[in-house]
Design brief:
Blueprint: H1 5-12, H2 34-37, H3 64-68, E1 75-81, H4 84-96, H5 102-110, E2 119-122, H6 127-133, H7 137-149, E3 158-160, H8 172-178, E4 183-185, E5 193-201, H9 205-216, E6 221-229
Parallel strand pairs: 1-6, 2-5, 5-6
Antiparallel strand pairs: 3-4
Length: about 240
Protein backbone atom coordinates (compact mmCIF):
# COMPACT_ATOMS: atom_id res chain seq x y z
CA UNK A 1 0.00 0.00 0.00
CA UNK A 2 1.21 3.51 -0.84
CA UNK A 3 1.86 6.21 1.71
CA UNK A 4 -1.15 8.50 2.22
CA UNK A 5 -0.05 11.91 3.50
CA UNK A 6 -3.69 12.96 3.97
CA UNK A 7 -4.37 10.04 6.32
CA UNK A 8 -1.26 10.94 8.32
CA UNK A 9 -2.51 14.51 8.72
CA UNK A 10 -5.86 13.18 9.91
CA UNK A 11 -4.08 11.14 12.58
CA UNK A 12 -1.88 14.03 13.71
CA UNK A 13 -4.60 16.69 13.58
CA UNK A 14 -7.94 14.93 14.13
CA UNK A 15 -11.08 16.99 13.70
CA UNK A 16 -14.78 16.40 14.10
CA UNK A 17 -17.17 16.64 11.20
CA UNK A 18 -19.41 19.69 11.77
CA UNK A 19 -22.31 17.86 10.11
CA UNK A 20 -22.45 14.48 11.89
CA UNK A 21 -19.98 14.90 14.77
CA UNK A 22 -17.84 11.91 13.77
CA UNK A 23 -14.12 12.17 13.14
CA UNK A 24 -13.12 13.50 9.76
CA UNK A 25 -11.55 10.74 7.65
CA UNK A 26 -10.30 12.66 4.62
CA UNK A 27 -7.87 15.56 4.58
CA UNK A 28 -9.28 16.74 1.27
CA UNK A 29 -12.78 17.26 2.69
CA UNK A 30 -11.77 17.87 6.32
CA UNK A 31 -13.35 18.82 8.62
CA UNK A 32 -16.30 17.31 6.71
CA UNK A 33 -16.12 13.51 6.63
CA UNK A 34 -16.28 11.52 3.39
CA UNK A 35 -19.67 10.07 4.21
CA UNK A 36 -21.27 13.49 4.71
CA UNK A 37 -19.54 14.89 1.63
CA UNK A 38 -21.02 12.10 -0.47
CA UNK A 39 -24.43 13.35 0.66
CA UNK A 40 -24.14 16.58 -1.35
CA UNK A 41 -26.94 16.35 -3.90
CA UNK A 42 -27.18 17.79 -7.38
CA UNK A 43 -30.37 19.81 -7.89
CA UNK A 44 -32.43 18.34 -10.70
CA UNK A 45 -35.82 19.92 -10.00
CA UNK A 46 -37.67 22.45 -12.17
CA UNK A 47 -36.03 25.84 -12.60
CA UNK A 48 -35.95 28.94 -14.77
CA UNK A 49 -34.08 28.20 -17.97
CA UNK A 50 -32.21 31.50 -17.75
CA UNK A 51 -31.37 32.43 -14.13
CA UNK A 52 -31.85 28.96 -12.65
CA UNK A 53 -34.32 30.01 -9.94
CA UNK A 54 -36.05 26.86 -8.66
CA UNK A 55 -39.70 26.82 -9.68
CA UNK A 56 -42.76 24.93 -8.50
CA UNK A 57 -43.88 23.72 -11.92
CA UNK A 58 -41.75 21.94 -14.53
CA UNK A 59 -43.77 23.82 -17.14
CA UNK A 60 -42.34 27.19 -16.02
CA UNK A 61 -39.45 27.72 -18.42
CA UNK A 62 -38.80 31.39 -17.58
CA UNK A 63 -39.35 33.03 -14.20
CA UNK A 64 -41.16 36.35 -13.71
CA UNK A 65 -37.96 38.27 -12.97
CA UNK A 66 -36.33 37.19 -16.25
CA UNK A 67 -39.51 37.97 -18.20
CA UNK A 68 -39.58 41.43 -16.65
CA UNK A 69 -35.88 42.14 -17.04
CA UNK A 70 -33.86 39.62 -19.04
CA UNK A 71 -30.28 39.34 -17.75
CA UNK A 72 -27.31 39.74 -20.08
CA UNK A 73 -25.89 36.31 -19.28
CA UNK A 74 -27.07 33.36 -21.36
CA UNK A 75 -27.77 30.93 -18.55
CA UNK A 76 -27.02 30.06 -14.92
CA UNK A 77 -25.81 26.55 -14.09
CA UNK A 78 -25.35 25.50 -10.47
CA UNK A 79 -24.70 22.28 -8.59
CA UNK A 80 -27.11 22.31 -5.67
CA UNK A 81 -29.37 24.21 -3.31
CA UNK A 82 -27.65 26.42 -0.75
CA UNK A 83 -28.44 24.25 2.24
CA UNK A 84 -27.11 21.40 4.33
CA UNK A 85 -23.66 20.00 3.65
CA UNK A 86 -23.01 22.13 0.56
CA UNK A 87 -23.76 25.29 2.54
CA UNK A 88 -21.48 24.12 5.36
CA UNK A 89 -18.64 23.44 2.92
CA UNK A 90 -18.98 26.87 1.27
CA UNK A 91 -19.00 28.55 4.68
CA UNK A 92 -15.87 26.68 5.76
CA UNK A 93 -14.04 27.83 2.63
CA UNK A 94 -15.43 31.37 2.57
CA UNK A 95 -15.41 32.39 6.22
CA UNK A 96 -13.08 29.90 7.93
CA UNK A 97 -10.36 29.85 5.30
CA UNK A 98 -10.37 26.05 4.75
CA UNK A 99 -8.76 26.56 1.36
CA UNK A 100 -8.30 22.87 0.52
CA UNK A 101 -12.09 22.68 0.02
CA UNK A 102 -11.71 24.77 -3.15
CA UNK A 103 -10.53 21.62 -4.99
CA UNK A 104 -13.48 19.30 -4.22
CA UNK A 105 -15.92 22.21 -4.60
CA UNK A 106 -14.32 23.06 -7.93
CA UNK A 107 -14.70 19.42 -8.94
CA UNK A 108 -18.47 19.70 -8.30
CA UNK A 109 -18.57 22.64 -10.71
CA UNK A 110 -16.66 20.66 -13.32
CA UNK A 111 -19.45 18.05 -13.33
CA UNK A 112 -21.97 20.59 -14.63
CA UNK A 113 -22.78 20.59 -18.37
CA UNK A 114 -20.65 23.67 -18.96
CA UNK A 115 -20.35 24.99 -22.53
CA UNK A 116 -17.11 25.58 -24.37
CA UNK A 117 -15.58 28.90 -23.43
CA UNK A 118 -12.60 31.11 -24.23
CA UNK A 119 -11.95 32.04 -20.63
CA UNK A 120 -13.02 31.77 -16.99
CA UNK A 121 -13.75 34.90 -14.97
CA UNK A 122 -14.51 34.86 -11.25
CA UNK A 123 -16.78 37.29 -9.41
CA UNK A 124 -14.36 39.76 -7.75
CA UNK A 125 -14.20 41.19 -4.24
CA UNK A 126 -13.55 44.86 -3.56
CA UNK A 127 -9.89 45.30 -2.58
CA UNK A 128 -10.81 46.33 0.98
CA UNK A 129 -12.83 43.15 1.54
CA UNK A 130 -10.13 41.06 -0.13
CA UNK A 131 -7.60 42.53 2.28
CA UNK A 132 -9.76 41.60 5.28
CA UNK A 133 -10.58 38.08 4.06
CA UNK A 134 -7.06 37.52 2.60
CA UNK A 135 -8.31 35.49 -0.37
CA UNK A 136 -11.18 35.31 -2.85
CA UNK A 137 -12.87 31.92 -2.47
CA UNK A 138 -14.46 32.18 -5.92
CA UNK A 139 -11.08 32.85 -7.54
CA UNK A 140 -9.67 29.83 -5.69
CA UNK A 141 -12.42 27.58 -7.08
CA UNK A 142 -11.94 29.09 -10.54
CA UNK A 143 -8.24 28.17 -10.56
CA UNK A 144 -9.06 24.50 -10.06
CA UNK A 145 -11.84 24.64 -12.66
CA UNK A 146 -9.46 26.23 -15.17
CA UNK A 147 -6.95 23.41 -14.76
CA UNK A 148 -9.62 20.72 -14.85
CA UNK A 149 -11.36 21.99 -17.98
CA UNK A 150 -8.21 23.39 -19.64
CA UNK A 151 -9.89 26.75 -20.13
CA UNK A 152 -7.69 29.83 -19.56
CA UNK A 153 -8.26 31.69 -16.31
CA UNK A 154 -8.61 35.44 -16.79
CA UNK A 155 -7.73 36.98 -13.40
CA UNK A 156 -8.30 40.67 -12.71
CA UNK A 157 -10.28 41.14 -15.93
CA UNK A 158 -13.23 42.36 -13.91
CA UNK A 159 -12.89 44.44 -10.75
CA UNK A 160 -15.31 45.58 -8.09
CA UNK A 161 -14.84 49.34 -7.93
CA UNK A 162 -17.49 50.14 -5.30
CA UNK A 163 -17.17 48.96 -1.70
CA UNK A 164 -20.83 48.09 -1.24
CA UNK A 165 -22.55 46.75 1.90
CA UNK A 166 -22.74 42.97 2.15
CA UNK A 167 -25.60 41.59 0.09
CA UNK A 168 -26.81 39.70 3.15
CA UNK A 169 -27.32 43.03 4.92
CA UNK A 170 -29.81 44.42 2.39
CA UNK A 171 -33.22 43.31 1.12
CA UNK A 172 -33.94 41.72 -2.26
CA UNK A 173 -34.80 44.92 -4.13
CA UNK A 174 -31.96 46.83 -2.47
CA UNK A 175 -29.46 44.22 -3.64
CA UNK A 176 -29.86 45.32 -7.25
CA UNK A 177 -29.48 49.01 -6.40
CA UNK A 178 -26.60 48.21 -4.06
CA UNK A 179 -24.53 46.74 -6.90
CA UNK A 180 -25.49 49.11 -9.70
CA UNK A 181 -22.34 50.05 -11.66
CA UNK A 182 -20.21 48.36 -9.00
CA UNK A 183 -18.04 46.45 -11.50
CA UNK A 184 -15.56 47.52 -14.15
CA UNK A 185 -13.76 45.52 -16.85
CA UNK A 186 -10.12 46.33 -17.56
CA UNK A 187 -9.04 43.37 -19.70
CA UNK A 188 -9.82 42.57 -23.32
CA UNK A 189 -12.91 40.38 -23.53
CA UNK A 190 -14.13 41.52 -26.95
CA UNK A 191 -15.80 38.67 -28.84
CA UNK A 192 -15.08 36.10 -26.11
CA UNK A 193 -17.41 33.42 -24.76
CA UNK A 194 -16.91 33.44 -20.99
CA UNK A 195 -17.68 31.35 -17.92
CA UNK A 196 -18.46 33.61 -14.96
CA UNK A 197 -17.91 31.72 -11.69
CA UNK A 198 -19.61 32.52 -8.37
CA UNK A 199 -20.04 30.56 -5.16
CA UNK A 200 -23.66 31.28 -4.18
CA UNK A 201 -26.48 32.98 -6.08
CA UNK A 202 -29.37 34.44 -4.10
CA UNK A 203 -31.22 37.11 -6.09
CA UNK A 204 -28.75 37.02 -8.98
CA UNK A 205 -27.95 40.73 -8.59
CA UNK A 206 -24.18 40.18 -8.48
CA UNK A 207 -23.91 38.03 -11.61
CA UNK A 208 -26.37 40.29 -13.45
CA UNK A 209 -24.15 43.32 -12.82
CA UNK A 210 -20.96 41.41 -13.67
CA UNK A 211 -22.52 40.20 -16.93
CA UNK A 212 -23.63 43.73 -17.75
CA UNK A 213 -20.08 45.03 -17.32
CA UNK A 214 -18.61 42.17 -19.40
CA UNK A 215 -21.17 42.65 -22.18
CA UNK A 216 -20.50 46.39 -22.22
CA UNK A 217 -16.80 45.57 -22.69
CA UNK A 218 -17.63 43.45 -25.74
CA UNK A 219 -17.97 39.87 -24.45
CA UNK A 220 -19.90 37.71 -26.92
CA UNK A 221 -21.62 35.55 -24.29
CA UNK A 222 -21.53 34.83 -20.57
CA UNK A 223 -22.58 31.59 -18.88
CA UNK A 224 -22.73 31.67 -15.09
CA UNK A 225 -21.47 28.66 -13.12
CA UNK A 226 -22.17 28.58 -9.38
CA UNK A 227 -21.88 26.04 -6.61
CA UNK A 228 -25.27 26.77 -5.11
CA UNK A 229 -28.47 28.73 -5.46
CA UNK A 230 -30.77 29.84 -2.65
CA UNK A 231 -34.36 28.73 -2.73
CA UNK A 232 -36.64 31.70 -3.45
CA UNK A 233 -38.53 33.05 -0.46
CA UNK A 234 -42.23 32.37 -0.55
CA UNK A 235 -44.52 35.35 -0.28
CA UNK A 236 -46.67 35.25 2.84
Amino acid sequence: MGFDFGNLLNLLFPSKCPVCGNHSDSYLYSPICKNCWSGIERYTGPSCGICGTPTVSPHTTTCGNCLKSRPLFSKVLYYGIYDGILKEAIHLLKFNGVKRLSKPLGFLLSELPLPQANGIVSVPLHHSRLWKREFNQTASISRFLSKKLKIPLMPDVIRKIKDTPLQTDVTGKERFQNLKNAFSVSGNVSGLELLLVDDVITTGATVRECAKALKKAGAKSITVAALARSMPKQNT
